[in-house]
Amino acid sequence: MTSPVQAWVAERTGLKERLTAETLKTWQMERVKETIQYAWRSCRYYAERLQGVDTKRLERMADMQHLPFTRPEDVALRPEGFLCVPQREVSRVVTLFTSGSLGRPKRIFFTERDLEKTVDFFACGMSTMTQSGEKTLVLMSGATHYSIGDLLQKALARIGAEAHIHGNVKDVHSAIDAARGFDCLVGVPAELMYMARTEGDLRPKSVLLSADYVPESIIKGIEDRWKCRVYTHYGMTETGFGGGVQCSAGLGYHLRDADLLFEIVDPQSGRQAAPGQYGEVVITTLSREAMPLIRYRTGDMARMLEGACRCGGILPRLDKVMGRYANTIPIEGAKPLSIHKLDELMFAVPEIRNYSAKLIISSRANVLSLTVDTVQDLDADRLSEYIKAYFGSGMDIRISRSTVSPFTGAAKRQISIEHQ
Question: Whole-model pTM?
């Protein structure tokens, strides 16, 4: 069945039966021009950055290269400078703490109309994996107004589905008990994997993984354990939470093209990547009211997929996001280390339900220290050899066993680094 996102894009753009990849690009470029004019008139940051930009040149995607990038540090340093509406019209402010910009947090603003567009897209995306009369349990966020859980609950009500908000998981056994009898579970990849490897008799029809990188090994692990279909979602606060969602074919994300323009650029040169080439995901909001973002560099690694999807979709899709450039650690004498690659390797081992990682850097050796939480006995020597076989001889591996709970409330997994 064709992804419902395509029909949603056709309707929201007004293109309807005229929707093709080319007509969509033309429509999006017109919205980019409008966004530039709106941002230039309405906020301090873009009034300075976009001065002198000739929107008449923006006829094709290639012309986007004439526009300056917006970087996360720009938002962190001057969040109010992006605001295009009076503070009284802001319905939600999300504060994101990052390691960049001298530790300054990013603040992302939304009006009620911005959040209504998110609910609208969520309703479409969730109809991929659930339907009227079914029950969904949201194992993340909370029930506060305009939280992710609240937005999902509103969205599911629109398609006649029932949603319960469990909130962030704090205890695996209470989460497992809460999940019994639900048709769809929504949660964070490592947390749902921990639940699956702790208890194998849950039988949801579908699972949606979001809020972090999703390793293929976690998808396979949950599908094998719970005998269900796993879908993944791509989005971030800066995209208005929703960005793209998989269809039943599982080949890339069908995108929120009526609200967002996606580009892939070379992370070094900033030039647009060739079709099918991996690069950095860059987004431009097309209908954001409170805080438009123009050519915002997400730091995520991915590529665009051209051509028809197996589901019948005809629009370009975003391929699997391969992690973040900033989280890749070069190691002398070994392959680069990232939590994303490590997740793929570690969660492919059936005995592992979670782990933590620390990289110890010294003049003598680089040591990757792994603390592993297992559901049964595990040969530590074999695991060490398995990890070292991938990364190479330039990194020593140490394995220890302990309980490692993923239920920390932190959105993103990471490798801690210690210098000796």
Answer: 0.94
